[in-house]
UniProtKB/TrEMBL annotation:
Species this chain originates from: Candidatus Buchananbacteria bacterium RIFCSPLOWO2_01_FULL_39_33
Protein name in UniProt: Uncharacterized protein
Length: 189
């Protein structure tokens, strides 16, 4: 029997996963939560250095950032970060397509990184060589606070046709998401 697009077999499978009638009642009372499948899978970590003062525009050449989008230019290019400490950056692979809200929820308090750290990771692959970041034209994503004090999804794509990084920033509240396979940077320390 079908109810819309759901078959009775699927309803029974959910019933069984929740533990039958007792589990369903606990779920409906809010006493049982269901955790979704893992969204991020750890690829590696990378140690990054701190700095007394960082301004992205002063590091574009050494990092090989050749093209920046208008949001990045407005919110990050002249932003000053001071007294940035050393850190360990985690690099994860996005297991399935997702919106920023879900990615940030899974990362929790580790989600936001510093712009100085993001640029250091980009600099390690400034020639498009293999490394922790994708250099196949797919996005490498980091959540970074802009000059407007809001957190933005900063993305970097390696342009093999032009030989440099393309960097921009997107609203974390926007309706567009990220495809599976992209890399996500966060704090591991």
């Amino acid at each position: 029997m079908k109810y819309g697009n759901v078959t009775l077999g699927k309803i029974e499978a959910v019933w069984n996963k929740l533990g039958g009638e007792d589990g369903v009642n606990q779920f409906l009372r809010g006493e049982l939560t269901v955790k979704g499948a893992e969204l991020l899978k750890r690829v590696t970590t990378m140690a990054v250095s701190g700095t007394k003062r960082f301004v992205a525009n002063e590091h574009r050449k050494e990092t090989n950032v050749g093209l920046t989008g208008s949001n990045f230019e407005k919110l990050f290019l002249e932003k000053v970060e001071e007294n940035v400490g050393d850190a360990i950056i985690a690099i994860d692979r996005l297991v399935r397509a997702s919106l920023n809200a879900s990615i940030r929820a899974e990362l929790g308090s580790r989600a936001e990184i510093k712009l100085a750290h993001f640029f250091e990771v980009l600099k390690a692959q400034s020639g498009g060589e293999a490394g922790v970041l994708l250099v196949n034209g797919y996005a490498n994503i980091a959540y970074i606070r802009g000059a407007d004090k809001k957190v933005w999804a900063v993305d970097a794509y390696w342009g093999s046709d032009c030989g440099f990084w393309r960097v921009d920033a997107r609203s974390v509240g926007g309706p567009s998401g990220w495809c599976a396979g992209r890399r996500v940077l966060s704090r591991d320390s």
